[in-house]
Amino acid sequence: xxxxxxxxxxxxxxxxxxxxxxxxxxxxxxxxxxxxxxxxxxxxxxxxxxxxxxxxxxxxxxxxxxxxxxxxxxxxxxxxxxxxxxxxxxxxxxxxxxxxxxxxxxxxxxxxxxxxxxxxxxx
Length: 123
Hints:
Order of helices and strands: EHHEEEEHE
Largest sheet: 6 strands, antiparallel
Radius of gyration: 14 Å
Low-confidence stretches: 1-7
GO molecular function, one term: adenosylmethionine decarboxylase activity
CATH topology: S-adenosylmethionine decarboxylase
CATH class: Alpha Beta
Number of strands: 6
Pfam family, one: AdoMet_dc
Distance between the termini: 12 Å
Keywords: Autocatalytic cleavage, Decarboxylase, Lyase, Polyamine biosynthesis, Pyruvate, S-adenosyl-L-methionine, Schiff base, Spermidine biosynthesis, Zymogen
Number of domains: 1
Protein name: S-adenosylmethionine decarboxylase proenzyme
Structural class: alpha+beta
Number of helices: 3
Strand order of the largest sheet: 2-3-4-5-1-6
CATH superfamily: S-adenosylmethionine decarboxylase
Helix content: 10-25%
Organism: candidate division WOR-1 bacterium RIFOXYB2_FULL_36_35
């Protein structure tokens, strides 16, 4: 668990990169919408609005196609960017409720069926 004094009592943030993920999950809008809601509920946050999720397409480089989304909760934010062509997902999570970074990593690894995840920054 992080301690509140690490962020001057405001909140906690992490960035997570997941590699060799399930292609089908990375490109599925319904899966990602459910993932946003279920993940937030599992952390004890309360939903404010539905997730905002959209496909991004790059006609010159299909490996850059994917889905991006965000969801705001009471004092918290989750962003996910997927790149099915590269089998990668990037996740950013901020919460005013303390959380265990290993929990977030494990949850997302299982959700995306990733072979490897890496915490990039945490503060």
